[in-house]
Structure formats: C-alpha cells, structure tokens
Predict the 3D structure of the following.
Amino acid sequence: MNAFAALADDTRREIVTLVAKNGELTSTEISQNFTMSPPAISQHLKILKEAKVLHMKKEAQKRIYSLDHSGIDEMEDWLSNIKNLWNKRLDRLEKYLLKIKKEKLRDKK
C-alpha cells in the first residue's frame, strides 16, 4: 500500500498528526488517544509502517513510532510534480488570454 492509500483513512491521518505533533510515541500512547481497541490501532500502525509513513523501532517490549520521511517525501514529490504541471497549464492559459486581449485592442484601433 502506498502512502496516499494509507492516509485515505481518517484514523490513520489522525495517528500521523498525533505522531507529528509529539515526535515519538509508543503504540500504547497512540492507542490511548482513540476509543477503538489497541489491536485495531495496531493494524492501522502496521499499514502506516508498511506504507513508509511511520517508522517503528523496538526498545525492550515497547514499539516506538515516529514519522518516516521516505513516505512523506514520496507524497511531497508527487504533489510538487502535480503543482508544477498545473502551474504550466495556468501559464499557457495566461499567455493565451494576453494574446486575445492584444488582438482585441489591435482590432479596436
């Protein structure tokens, strides 16, 4: 599953926001912020880890989660490419509109 698909779920977006605000959190600390069962939160964490949105490290019996920049960077790169494509389209539209405006001004003279 890619990062976009993983973040399509409201709960997973909330988990990522929670981790982003706090830095590192254990799975227990994360699950305490939700009304669903810890096993359900664990499933969400597993998906976020597989999508490289969250990174997990083990310390003794604890699983500590933090943001994984590789998944975030992948989404940022994709969004940047889409934004660039959109800006190019808008630039072409602007040039076309300026051309039409100049033609109308020339025709009035």
Q: What stands out?
A: Helices lie at 3-6, 10-22, 27-31, 38-50, 69-108. Residues 53 and 88 are 30 Å apart (CA to CA).
